[in-house]
Design a protein that fits this description.
This protein is mostly helical. About 50% of the residues lie in helices and about 5% in strands. It has a four-stranded mixed sheet. Strand 1, helix 2 and strand 2 form a beta-alpha-beta unit. It is globular.
Amino acid sequence: MPAEVQQPQWQIWSVPKPMAQLFDKFPLVEHPAALLPATPNTPKHADQPTLYIYSTAIDSSAHSPSFDAECLKWQTALLLAGLPFNAVSSNRHASPTFTLPFLNEPLSGPLVYSSGILKWIQENPSANLAAYLDEKTQADATAFTSLIESKIHNAWIYTCFLEPKNYQAVALPWYTKATAWPVNLWIGRQIREEKRAEIEAKRTVNGEEIYADAAAAFAAIAAALGDDEWFFASREPTLLDATLFTYTHLILSSPLVQDGIRQIVRTHGNLVQHAKRVYDRCYRK
């Protein structure tokens, strides 16, 4: 009589013991579902335009300032222009162009991206953002805006994304808060490299030189503002005021660990007071 064949101790749908022991060393972890950017908060006023921005506010509103420079600039410009709008917390995966901010007009109107928001403001008859500046003053405002968006913008990007401690403590949590680990690390690294490439397209990435350029730019802008409430002794704030506030507010209020750039801004008392004026006008609840 043939010897009885020893049957394996596992069935066809069970995991062999050696493999199970291996799996025990690397247990499956189920992360919470990431928030879907395509389903943002419902705007409180459906008849108003909606600005989609980066924001830490769970129930973001027009009066919760964005932590992203481009978003904050246009959010502040709309508020200074006196135009009613909703602000909704979002991220770039919700944008058709993979960038924020964008403005969505009510009743399924066309999307307006950051490059077109100024034109949208200017075409609005109820807006009051620097429509009264003369041609020469407009040219001066354009020159100072260019200075801010090159020298000071580079310094903010370097501070926030390329200073290692600031990246870990500030930028990474800001931009990947709704994303589970380890995907958040990959997204953060991707954004960081994009920001590095943005600077490299304009200049050498040298922190000492970048901060020196920013210091010179802040000094020139502080001299131009002088003791006036708004630039060019304007009756009302202009887009230049919104643009400067974008960076002074972020620099002064962000929880930076490496904060050399904050010390640069604080040497100009009029810039600190200007940031406070804009904040009080737009965001003080």
